[in-house]
Amino acid sequence: MTDTKMKSVPKVRFEGFTDDWEERKLADFINVKSGKDYKHLNSGSIPVYGTGGYMLSVDRALSDIDAIGIGRKGTIDKPYLLKAPFWTVDTLFYAVPKQNIDLQFSLSIFKKINWKKFDESTGVPSLSKTVINSVSVAVPSYEEQQKIGSFFKELDDTIALHQRKHDSLLKLKQAYLQKMFPKNGQKTPELRFGGFTDDWEERKLGAITDSFSGGTPTAGKAEYYGGEIPFIRSGEISSDSTELFITDAGLNNSSAKMVGIGDILYALYGATSGETSISRINGAINQAILAIRPTKGDDPYMIVQWLKKQKETIISTYLQGGQGNLSGSIVKDLLITLPKTKDEQAKVGSFFKQLDQTITLHQQQLDNLKQLKKWALQNLFV
């Protein structure tokens, strides 16, 4: 690829292409067609799609040509590829490229457009064929379209592969959490490491840990913010960075408390209530976080995994409708089931630590690929 500053071409383009791109209406190179009701059809092998994706399968196709699905009503800003044969419902348009227009290039164009700004409704978001057809975009030669389309197809395929791997690891972890911890009312797990046979034992979390929450420096005091101390909020307990930093004065003149790498952080308030993680940074916590430190030699990763496994039970027990706040006293009174031997705790904790690290690695790779795609959409098009 080469960089260019010309206004009629993208900032970055593939080698060998120098011609200006041509400004055209979508109507010039895309046929927008309407979806239809499917209820008169029989069950079959042809997929039916709506704005949210696949719905069911029928015995007839509306199109035998690959196309782009774009919402007419409802979700209008998430276009996606439709592989033929397919049927679409009446809330989903399907757009078919005309001759000498590359499908993958067109799909990338559709994904780049901010469709929400073309919403014609004051209620449920809506688009019309007229509006779609009137959108102006810049288009290169067919050969350059193919290069760009092929690039984005390969990138999308790679993102999809990493997403599947990440999702599979999350499902695998959930399966292990169910099998490597005793079910309610039982004293041994279904699956455990060799050499361990003792029953697990139930103890109050507060009996085997010390815990404390933090606070927030007074808002608006410039001398309290912009320092070098990471200020951890409940949505950042799993992160290796924070958005806010406070000063020593901010720490010393508030209820904020310092935590270190390896401490257990438990979210008490808001949308993240019940989330827990091992701290990845040294920093200060606010009042929405409970820091938990084992005092009897129990493995912190073991405790974290138990809390993760029990999250839904804790939320449903203590938060009405899943809304509200937990408290330090509630968490301290939780009855936690752990192996009696520290060796077994260490084995289980280490297993889940390594699994979490693998999941995090895949998430980072996925995030990097998505950032690459975002950059490409901004730089490979005019």
Task: Explain the overall architecture.
The protein is α+β, with helices and mostly antiparallel strands. The protein contains 10 helices and 21 strands. It is globular and about 70 Å long. Helices cover about 35% and strands about 25% of the residues. The strands form 7 sheets. It has a 4-stranded antiparallel sheet with strand order 4-10-7-8. A 4-stranded antiparallel sheet has the order 13-20-17-18. The two termini are about 15 Å apart. The chain folds into 3 domains: about 20-140, DNA methylase specificity domains (Adenine-n6-DNA-methyltransferase TaqI, Chain A, domain 2, Alpha-Beta Complex); about 140-200 and about 340-380, Orthogonal Bundle (Helix Hairpins), CATH 1.10.287.1120; about 200-340, Adenine-n6-DNA-methyltransferase TaqI, Chain A, domain 2 (Alpha-Beta Complex). About 30% of the residues are buried.
Could you name the key traits of this structure?
single chain; 382 residues; Adenine-n6-DNA-methyltransferase TaqI, Chain A, domain 2; Helix Hairpins; 3 domains; 10 helices; 21 strands; 23% strand
Helix/strand layout:
Elements: E1 2-3, E2 12-13, E3 22-25, H1 26-29, E4 30-33, E5 43-50, E6 53-58, E7 67-71, E8 80-82, E9 87-88, E10 92-97, H2 103-112, H3 129-134, E11 136-139, H4 142-179, E12 201-204, H5 205-208, E13 209-213, E14 225-232, E15 244-246, H6 248-252, E16 257-259, E17 264-267, E18 276-278, E19 283-285, E20 289-294, H7 300-309, H8 311-318, H9 328-332, E21 335-338, H10 342-379
Parallel strand pairs: 5-9, 14-19
Antiparallel strand pairs: 1-2, 3-11, 4-10, 5-6, 7-8, 7-10, 12-21, 13-20, 14-15, 16-19, 17-18, 17-20
